[in-house]
Design goal:
about 25% helix, Nuclear Transport Factor 2, Chain: A
C-alpha cells in the first residue's frame, strides 16, 4: 500500500467506525466533495461534517472495499455501502475518486449506482425517517427553506447534495 492509498484507507476505516473526527482528519481544510456530474456536495470540512453527521446515524452503515487502484496522487475505490434508505435497508455501489495533496484528501468525487433494497420498507413517511431531522438541520444551514427530500431523486433516495 502506498502513502496515498494509506490515507484513503484511514478515511474508509474511520467511516466504518463512524468516527467523525478521524474521518474529517483525512481531509484538508479546503477539501471539496463533488458528484461525478460536477455537482458540489460539500465545499469544506464544515459542510462535510453536516453531511456525514446524519449518515453516521444510520445503524447499518458500512462500506466494503471491492477494489482500489492508484496512480501518482489519485486513488480510486469501488465500494459497496450498506445503508438505511427511507424505503428500507439496502446497498449502493460507489466509485470514489480521491485527489491527495500534502498527505490529505484535497478533493473527492463520487459516482453512485446499483442501489438495491435488501430489507423491508419501514412504512415511515420521509419526514419521520430516523435520520431525517439531522438531514433537515444540515439542509437548513446550507439551503434555508428547502427540505432534504428534494435531493432524494438525485442519489438513490438519499440527500448527499445539501447545497442549492
Amino acid at each position: 500500500m502506498n502513502a496515498c492509498e494509506a490515507i484513503v484507507q484511514r478515511q474508509l476505516d474511520a467511516y466504518n467506525r463512524k468516527d467523525m473526527a478521524a474521518w474529517l482528519a483525512t481531509y484538508s481544510e479546503g477539501a471539496a466533495q463533488y458528484s461525478i456530474e460536477g455537482e458540489l456536495i460539500a465545499r469544506d470540512k464544515a459542510h462535510m461534517r453536516a453531511n456525514i453527521a446524519s449518515r453516521f446515524m444510520e445503524p447499518d452503515l458500512y462500506a466494503e472495499l471491492l477494489s482500489r487502484h492508484s496512480d501518482d496522487n489519485v486513488v480510486i475505490d469501488h465500494e459497496r455501502v450498506r445503508r438505511n434508505f427511507p424505503e428500507g435497508a439496502g446497498t449502493i455501489e460507489m466509485l470514489c475518486i480521491y485527489l491527495i495533496e500534502h498527505d490529505l484528501i484535497a478533493r473527492a468525487t463520487f459516482k453512485l449506482f446499483n442501489q438495491r433494497l435488501t430489507g423491508m420498507h419501514t412504512g415511515r413517511a420521509a419526514g419521520s425517517y430516523p435520520c431525517g431531522q439531522a438531514r433537515q438541520q444540515a439542509v437548513n444551514q446550507c439551503a434555508p427553506g428547502r427540505h432534504w427530500s428534494e435531493w432524494a431523486p438525485m442519489f438513490g433516495s438519499d440527500p448527499l447534495i445539501l447545497h442549492a
